Amino acid sequence: MNKIYTLILVLLLSVSCSSTSKKKKDLTESEKKAALHYSHGTEKLVSKNYTMALNHLLQAVKMNPEDPKIQNNLGMAYYFKGKLGKAINHLRKAVELDPENFDALNNLASIYFKQGRFALAKDQYKKVLEKLHYPHQYRTHYNMALISLREGSEAKARKHLGFSITENKDYCPSYFLLGKLEFGVKNYNRAYENFHNAGLGTCYKEPAPYFWKGKTLVNQNRYFKAEQLFRELMKKYPNSVYARKAAVELRNLKSKEILAKKIKEQNFRYNNVKKPLQSKQEKEAVESPSF
Question: Is 60 exceeded by the pLDDT of residue 2?
Fold first, then answer.
């Protein structure tokens, strides 16, 4: 079961998108320059140009080191460059400057999670859950579900996933993880329903829910519909990992069909072959126990 969960671990890392609560006219020249670098750096961070993001955000933090949002995004730039120690330092600074910087709290927890420091991650997420006005608690509950699974508590994980979906009915990662949990306990009807929901909304372009819907159908012996889904997946996402997995599933289905056909033919021949009549002596010999 742990292998199933490992495949779907997602770090939900947040970028702060607004630079300062001050009005533009109240900013110093240094703060204005910092805001400009911050804006460019954030744009590069979102577009995954992490080197340019780091360059701009380093300029921004020199000019305005007391801005928690700059500290958060600089921490994320370091994270994506693989410098986890520096990332943690800047995220801690962001939280120190603003204890309600939810992005920094979540990011810090997610990095601890990645490092396997689950107790620290859990403490950070709990701090976020205490802030009832935080608009993205569905992400926090999802991450808490991942920690619960690591701790071996599927019941707590399901509870957090339920809260996540209540907070945001379109949050597909929670549906997907619920689908994997139901699949793991062979509750295929509910697994299929969750995988279906995981493929809606913002995740409608994701191939994973398609594949797992097909896998669920195979386990329900609904081979024809499963085959249709796998072929549709391969057509829509030909270059994805799941397209290759779907091809393997199709070959397995073909093998099952051939095996089923052979068994059917053998049974037909056996049931229709003319058996010779047995004499009374032969019957007694067959029916007598052997000592």
Answer: no
